[in-house]
Automatic annotation (TrEMBL):
Species classification: Eukaryota, Metazoa, Ecdysozoa, Nematoda, Chromadorea
The species this protein was found in: Caenorhabditis remanei (Caenorhabditis vulgaris)
Signal peptide limits: none
Molecular function (Gene Ontology), one example: hydrolase activity
Protein name: Calcineurin-like phosphoesterase domain-containing protein
Keywords of the record: Membrane, Transmembrane, Transmembrane helix
Pfam annotation, one family: Metallophos
Regions crossing the membrane: 20-40, 75-94
Domain Calcineurin-like phosphoesterase: 113-285
Record's keyword annotation contains Magnesium: no
């Protein structure tokens, strides 16, 4: 497809990514019934477990799902169609969610700071200008002190999707806007091309750096995967990011992958103990309903607000858009407006 026109390449990508989303939903139900078929047969061999099966089987529909392949296939096809269509329709339904987070001894001017948090836009792939514009419009509807973009903004090189990302450049006009890299920034060409694009658009890129925001030290670290980029001195470096934070000042850290906290805990406990709030994305909260059990089990932090070691807090967003298949769980394409107040 190298010599095919760009529109044809994107069309085929959309079709195949939708197919991949449908397959993801379907294979989960297939595997689920595979387990049912395996364990139901084993359970029949023992009196007590057989009694449980008989009890469940008194409901005719459940009996059919346990023992009749035709019913299992029908259920799989119907649920695959239902979940896929629902998630495809809800993918661009951008929801603004509000949350108040209390921070002890908060040093913000007036004891209050309001920030908009967006993450995981994944412009490129199956995300076009329209979707980026919708996210930006939702942010612009809210009066905030700053906009924080927590990585994974793009899924293509600058030359291919510059126009798709351009709506984001409206954000610095609305409020000071800050950005840190996610893992996807390193997948396409030279990450510095995107960082120059953001800086030229007046977005502050925090590469293991900090900036003062209304009495609060806002720090940002490069993504945990950045050492694999091959770029010299471009690893995730928490001590460097917070070294210029004034003493006794509240600290907020932007770190795309919440798993970075484990590394902070082991390698930088002193710095972690001074952090009041870490903002992350990356997990998409699974993105697919059928993926939630696996993602929840595998990841140390899944979605929402957590207490972390040494007394700080972690906020993990499900992201504003989606990766790969243009599908997302209802109400999980989100923009967070956080009211940070003293406690």
């Amino acid at each position: 497809m190298y010599y095919a026109p760009a529109f044809l390449q994107w069309l085929l990508f959309d079709l195949t990514s939708i197919s991949a989303g449908i397959w993801t939903n379907m294979i989960a139900f297939v595997c689920g019934f595979g387990l049912v078929n395996f364990f139901a047969g084993k359970m029949k061999m023992f009196q007590y477990t057989s009694w449980i099966l008989d009890l469940i089987g008194k409901i005719p529909y459940f009996y059919d799902l346990m023992w009749k392949r035709r019913s299992q296939i029908k259920f799989t096809l119907v649920m695959t169609l239902l979940t896929s269509v629902t998630m495809f329709i809800s993918r661009d339904w951008i929801v603004v969610k509000h949350k108040t987070i209390k921070i002890p001894n908060f040093t913000a001017d007036g004891g209050h700071l309001r920030v908009a948090v967006i993450s995981d836009l994944h412009a490129g792939a199956s995300v076009y200008t329209t979707q980026i514009h919708q996210v930006v419009e939702k942010v612009l509807e809210n009066q905030v002190d700053a906009v924080l973009i927590v990585g994974d903004m793009v899924d293509a090189p600058v030359a291919d999707i510059e126009d798709r990302v351009r709506p984001v450049l409206q954000l610095p006009v609305h409020a000071p806007t800050y950005f840190v890299t996610g893992n996807h920034e390193y997948y396409y060409g030279d990450v510095h091309e995107w960082l120059r694009f953001y800086r030229n658009g007046h977005i502050t890129v925090l590469e293991n750096e900090s900036a003062m925001l209304r009495g609060v030290c806002l720090a940002g670290v490069n993504d945990i995967s950045s050492p694999k980029s091959g770029i010299l001195n471009h690893e995730m470096d928490l001590p460097k990011a917070v070294q210029r934070c004034p003493k006794n000042t509240s600290q907020i850290v932007m770190s795309h992958n919440p798993a970075s906290i484990r590394e902070f805990q082991v390698d930088h406990p002193k710095e972690l103990s001074k952090i009041d709030l870490i903002l992350s994305g990356h997990t998409h909260a699974g993105q697919f309903y059928v993926v939630i059990p696996v993602v929840y089990w595998l990841l140390p932090y899944f979605y929402g607000l957590y207490e972390i070691p040494f007394g700080g807090q972690l906020m993990v967003t499900a992201g504003s858009l989606y990766q790969g298949p243009p599908m997302k769980m209802i109400g999980m394409s989100e923009v967070w407006v956080l009211d940070l107040i003293g406690e």
